[in-house]
Amino acid sequence: DAGVTQSPTHLIKTRGQQVTLRCSPKSGHDTVSWYQQALGQGPQFIFQYYEEEERQRGNFPDRFSGHQFPNYSSELNVNALLLGDSALYLCASRLAVDGYTFGSGTRLTVV
Amino acid sequence: TQLLEQSPQFLSIQEGENLTVYCNSSSVFSSLQWYRQEPGEGPVLLVTVVTGGEVKKLKRLTFQFGDARKDSSLHITAAQPGDTGLYLCAGIRSEKLVFGKGTKLTVNP
């Protein structure tokens, strides 16, 4: 049973560019959340998707947007990249009261 | 302002030693989770504590949730090099996780 799958694993982008990160949730999980983990910090909540809608959002600018597809997979888009967006982006999925399962993340470097 | 404060931030000990890491908050959480994260990987859930005063044991790891549900501790007995990693506590608020900065533990052989 595959866990949470994220792609790509690593990515290097230039300031001002746009990036799309992808997440396939654990089989049977219908809720997907995205977190940003800067170096030396704990993960910070970006937003959560359920039934293809954004249900909750953390303190992140509108440059961060997302989408959930009918098969529960999700994308995180970041526009107008800044150097400070360099981080590990984690996707976590869950089903109702089950615990969260995290993917291995996408390491984004903005140069 | 960090909602969850973890201490110590770094801890380096010898194999066989005991240790305790702390997670403190001024806010009440409905439940709290502890995760362990290794370099290049996502956090892996160790335990969820729900009831104030609750104590849970996972082999050599003992987790405690404070009576007021604002703080928690993780105690490791006879630490092993395989325990090395970043230990994160996370409070659950409105179905989202609020993480502390973590305690980076290194267990030297």
Description:
The complex is a heterodimer of chains A (111) and B (109). With 111 residues, chain A is mainly beta. Chain A has a single domain (5-110), classed as Immunoglobulins (Immunoglobulin-like). Chain A has strands at 5-7, 10-13, 19-24, 31-37, 44-50, 53-57, 64-68, 74-78, 87-94, 101-102, 106-110. In chain A, the strands form 2 sheets. In chain A, strands 2, 4, 5, 6, 9, 10 and 11 form a 7-stranded mixed beta sheet that branches. Chain A has a 4-stranded antiparallel beta sheet with strand order 1-3-8-7, with no helix packed on it. Chain A starts with a strand and ends with a strand. Chain B has a single domain (4-103), classed as Immunoglobulin-like, CATH 2.60.40.10. In chain B, the strands form 2 sheets. In chain B, strands 2, 4, 5, 9, 10 and 11 form a 6-stranded mixed beta sheet that branches. In chain B, strands 1-3-8-7-6 form a 5-stranded antiparallel beta sheet, with no helix packed on it. Chain B is globular. The mean pLDDT of chain B is 93. At the A-B interface, strand 4, strand 5 and strand 10 of A face strand 5 and strand 10 of B.
Short overview:
Chain A has 111 residues and is mainly β.
Top keywords for this entry?
heterodimer; A: 111 residues; mainly beta; Immunoglobulin-like; 7-stranded mixed β-sheet; 4-stranded antiparallel β-sheet; globular; B: Immunoglobulin-like
Radius of gyration of chain A: 13 Å
Identify the CATH homologous superfamily of chain B: Immunoglobulins
Q: Which structural class fits the helix and strand makeup of chain B?
A: mainly beta
Shape of chain A: globular
Q: What's the number of structural domains of chain B?
A: 1
The largest pleated sheet of chain B is described as: 6 strands, mixed
CATH class of chain B: Mainly Beta
The poorly predicted ranges of chain A are: none
The CATH architecture of chain B can be given as Sandwich
Overall residue-averaged pLDDT value of chain A:
94
Per CATH, the class of chain A reads: Mainly Beta
The CATH topology of chain A turns out to be Immunoglobulin-like
Number of strands of chain A: 11
CATH topology of chain B: Immunoglobulin-like
Strand content of chain B: over 45%
The total domain count of chain A is 1
